[in-house]
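debug: dumping io for the single-chain case to check the tokenizer round-trip. Nothing else runs in this session.
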Amino acid sequence: MVTKGIDVRAVPLYPIWLAMPLAAASGALLDGAFPDTGVWPLAPLAVALLFTTLLGRGPWAGWLLGLIAGLAFWLTHIHWLTLYLGPLPWVALAVLQAIFFSIGVAMIAVVLRWGPRVWPSRLGRLGMVPLVVAGLWTAREAIAAVWPYGGFAWGRLALSQTEGPFAGLLSLVGASGLSFLIAWLAALGVQLLRERTLSFSWRGGIAVAAVALLIAIPAWPVLQSGTTRLAAVQGNANAGLFAEYVPGEILANHVSETLPLVGEDVDMVVWPENGSDIDPLRSDLAARTLDSISERMQAPLVVGTITLRDDKYYNSSLLWKAGEGAVQVYDKVHPVPFAEYMPDREFWRPFAPELIDLISRDYEIGTQSNIFDINGILAGIAICFDIADDQLVKEMISGGSELILAQTNNADFGSAERYTDESIQQLAIARMRAIEAGRTVVNISTVSSSAIIAPDGSTIASIPDFTAGSMVEEVPLSTTVTPAIAAGRGIEWLVSGLGLAGFVLAVLAAARSRSSRGSSVKASHG
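debug: decoded output
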């Protein structure tokens, strides 16, 4: 059937035997848009390819194609999990994320098929259908980012664009908003291909205009409120969960890399997550060592360590001052499930007892403010996976943070001998936060990828991977509140709600069509 120039027949664009490998190809291409390959145009192209496989198909076929594409993407995108943890966690997480992916794609298939009947005018087809499709894509990303067990905010379309021409939009619409816009471009392209009565020049012109419009929108201006000079140290220490090292070795690595900086005029020294493998709150030797570093550098030290308080373990960041000790403590709010703690241990243990038992201690969820007052400079603190949590970033900026210190430990996901792209994927998240929040982000790791990112997303300084080194830089501070931060999850709720409402209308249209066909059959046999 053709409705006013657009093909809405039940006949798919491709036979299923071709649609399935094309769906797999779309997943692999989508991974190529992310670091470290980082070919950002592949994101809308890969998503558009997936959408073409859905044309003329119902939800079950959409689910199957979504599952294939999701597996192709996730098994490739997080292959770094296999390095030390083996295939089971990799496959389990990839399958879970692919299921989320497939459900979202199944819903999109319904809208692509029935949306043109809900909005039959050309303006409706080109206007509403892409918006609803992009809203559903964003809703799926939003749910997977927070559920279950705090979610897995990895693989969002926005993260593929942090070094492309759309990156500035992060300051206006945030991560979910940029994902929505990339999915919208893909859906609009597919809808333009379906408009058979519209000339090729018009279709091409609309597509080029849409891309040009998004590129032309400037980032939100960030006003500099001052500067601070800081030192960030990468000790190149093997601080992995299952690493074998002599107690105090990781602390010594960071000490030895900091001592050459004595004499530098800095306002703070930043070490990574697990920068001290000995808890200075329980060890006099470690405490005296941190005192010495702070005193000799004549600056406070921000250091990550594992603390034990009231018989509970925490992944902590300490603000340490010579002679005063830890004047502030932040405990990681978003510990990684199945790595830093084992949720529902008794339920999951029968499935993989040896793997579950490797996680011998559970880190508690922190409750303190994620802002340190470093001699009058307010710094937001994010420990590793915290930087992927939208709400935590909003809280630190709403609390007045003038820069972000993102401490991380990537030693479980790569080495000089066995490189993976996990750390550079995480660096993309840090870059996204810098642009979104309008803040300098100091991403400091034990091994890689350490860099200082300016509020516009450019790199101020970096340290080579798997190399001991440091960065001493004067960096900008800001108190600007970008529209993305001011809106918070409001944009996410808005576009997700639009997508879900449009999906309901498409389902109702499909039900009405089935009912009409049933009535026609009864009448013909009457």
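debug: round-trip ok. The chain has 16 helices and 14 strands.
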